[in-house]
Structures are given as C-alpha cells and as structure tokens.
Amino acid sequence: MKKIMLIYPPGEIYQRGEDRCQINVNASVANSIRPCNDLGYVSSILKKEGYYIFLKDYSVHNSKFIDLETDIKRENPDIVFISITNGSILNDIKTAKKIREIKKDVIIIFKGALFFNAEPDLLKELDLSDIDYLIGGEVEFIIKPLLEAHYKNKNQLCEIEGICYKTEGSWLINKVNSFNDNLDLIPFPDRELMENELYKNPLTNRPMATISTSRGCPSSCIYCVSPVISGKKVRFRSVQSVYEELSECVNKHKISDFFFKSDTFTINKEWVISLCSLIINSPLKGKINWVANSRVNTIDEEMLLAMKTAGCSVIALGLESGSDESLVKMKKGTTVEQNINAVNLIKKLGFKTFGFYIIGFPWETTEHLNQTKDLIFKLNTDFIELSIATPYRGSELYNICKCDITGKDSFKYTANVSGFISSKELELFRKNIILKYHLRVSYILKKLFSKDLTLVLLISYLKYGLRMVKNCFFDI
C-alpha cells in the first residue's frame, strides 16, 4: 500500500487551496482560515484507489518543521503532496528541501494556481530541484491519472493537462486546454481527516465547512486570476449534490456553519433559488447558517429573501472602489451607484455585510483613494477588507505592471504598481483607514449593543480587533 502525506506546511497561515484568494490570513483584517478542502478532495479520491492517507494542516496547528519531521520519520511516506500559494512559495520550497534531506526517495508534489499553464521563466527562477511534479490545473481530475502514470507508465504523463513534470532534468509543461463540466464527479472532501473543529466561524465559534458550489467566472477584472484558472464559463454543481454535502456535514460531522465557495454565488438566480427551495423544504431548514459572496449587479430582493429563509446570514461583496473611473479601468463591470444600492438592499433585509475594497491600481491618484475612503465610511458594512492591488501571475494586472511578488506577502510587501503613489504611502493609507474605521465610537457601540451579541461573538471581536491593531501599529 502506497502512503501519501497531504499537507499545508508549517509557517504563516495563508489561505491555501483558494487559488484566487491566497492572502496571509493573520495579516488581514477580518478574514478567517478556511478548511483544507483541496487536501480533502485528494484524500477522498486516493482512498478509493487504496492509498494510505496522512492529512494535516501544520500551519493552523502553529507547528514547527520538527513536528513535520517527526511525522515523516514515523509515517515513512512514498509521496508528500503540498498545497502552495504565491506568497508562501519560497518557504514551501525550503520545506520540500528539508523533506528531501529526511527521505531522499520520496515523491514531492506541489499544487497551486502559481503553476497553472506555468511560464518557463518561472520554473527557471524558482529552485524546484527537489520537486517531482507541479499541479496547476484542477487537482481533483489530475491526481489519480498522475499517480497512475507515475507508477505504471510515465509515457502517459504527456497526456495529463495541467501538470508540469521533468524529463532528463528539464521541466515539461502540459497546458490546460479544457475544463471538466461535471463537478458532481468530484467526491465530497474527506472531513473524517480534515479536523473540522480547527476551522471556526468567527461569529459563532462553531466549526465552519467550505462547500464549493461552482467554478468559473465570465467577468474580466484585471486583478483576478479566476477566469484563467477556472475558465470564463461558469460550471455549477447540481443543487442536489450541494444539498447532499450539506446533509452529510450536518448529520455525520455535526457541522452547521458553512461558507459557499464560488467565484460569484449569486450569478445564476434560478440556480440559487432552486438550492434555497431545496433547503427550505427539507429537514435542514433552520439548522444551518451560511455565508456567500456576490457581485452587486447579480442580486435582487426575491433572491435575497430566498437566501435568508434558507439560512444565509452574511453576504460578502467585491465593492473594490468608490471611483467609477477605477471600476471601469479595472473592468469590474459595476458602478458606484450599484455598490450603494446593493449594500442598502442587503442591509434592509437584515444580512450582515462584508465589503472588500482594492486600492493602488496603476492609474490611481490620491483623489481615487479618497473616493474609495468616502464610500467605505458611507456604506458602513459590518466588516471590511482593504487590499492593495497585487499583480498575481496570470492576471491582466500582472501583464500591465510587468512586476512579480511571487514569494512575497501581499499585505506586508507592496509591489510599486501605482504610477502616482508610492508603496509606502499606500500601506500607510490602508492602515489609517482600517484603524479609523474600526475605532470609531459609533462602530464600536453598534457592535456592543447589537441584539445578536453573545459572549462568543464579543471574544471574537476582541481577538480580531487586537490582530488588526497589532498589524497596523507594528508593521508600519
């Protein structure tokens, strides 16, 4: 029986497995760590093939490398599978080197969006000498044929889209030419091994599962890699499949809090209402609490009311900017007026709101930043995240800026993307807004006198508040 270790390696907590959202969680304002679904998918698939699985998220355990070393020596794996991010890649490479020193014949696989249709220059720049395979495509459709080819017939490696592999010491890159439309083929993540209790909903302190509902995005936002790595065609799971996964989580794993992961959950009104109707007319009604993301131009009152009845309590919106000029140039496809109308409607219906904003695009001046600042305070969402435009490989912004932050934390390191504002000025602007927003007396009183405030929620607010203040004061 072959043994495989599926890991998030020791180090800072990055949002691994998310592909488009690979942030350093501890350096963010209000983001919480999500479960290691990508490892869970691989585990479910390979268990059926007879592999022995060891799965662990060392980062959320706050482990050191010695903990991983101990496990490697005890488990003696044939394969180590590591989920990487753009920001953590250099440390991930160091981890792989240490693993190789412990067990020289182990097969090491890296998986991450960084290697989607990888550029030859990238593979030369990074020291990947200890890595055997790179997976940039959808791992759920790749891992089984990859290992079959490795162990049975390496001539078949050339047929597997979305991987990079070595021949005579040189990397060969298999481009992704198509995406699998049938997401129902993917098994549920192996939550038996995923230590669900480690991933909490910060508002309830209960375990929170991530449920993937669709992949793909038809939009063209210049800062986002989703249309590249997931395709511009939206591929939906069947509502029955999503419902069955929810039911398994509730009945088998005692999980009642969920994050519905998609590029835009609300992009298809008929699909959303169909799922909500299934939940409402089932034993799950009143038993689940969930969060979803949305674009401001894809919602209406009928859809939102169905979502609320089905258990949705928080809606996250990519608002991005308070400048219509910036929204046009970043190809967002929305307007400031739509931002305002959407937030007002969502608030009116009783949802909590999470607003995401981005500053520092190449054309932006202080005027653009101040317009975004004004919108942030005007909309007054329950939670905010203010990011600095990051040129991820694969995005149009990367091609525009011709600069690279691979191996660097996008919150702690800012590429000089803006042609008008320095990196240092952007960082200070971001931190000042975050502090002013959260330290307002009105904001604090609203939280303290909220009708849904509990001791758990108060402790969560304090925890995230202390993290925010630490990041803002001690990183300047």
What features would you describe in this structure?
With 476 residues, the protein is of the alpha/beta class. The chain folds into 2 domains: 3-173, Rossmann fold; 199-474, TIM Barrel. Helices cover 37% and strands 17% of the residues. It has 16 helices and 16 strands. It has helices at 37-47, 65-75, 89-102, 120-125, 143-152, 226-229, 239-253, 269-280, 301-309, 324-329, 336-348, 366-379, 396-401, 423-438, 441-448, 455-474, and strands spanning 3-8, 52-57, 79-83, 107-111, 133-135, 163-167, 170-173, 200-201, 206-212, 214-215, 235-236, 257-261, 289-294, 312-320, 352-359, 383-388. The strands form 3 sheets. The protein has a 7-stranded mixed β-sheet with strand order 2-1-3-4-5-6-7, sandwiched between helices. Strands 8-9-12-13-14-15-16 form a 7-stranded mixed β-sheet. Helix 7 packs parallel to helix 8. It starts with a strand and ends with a helix. The mean pLDDT is 93.
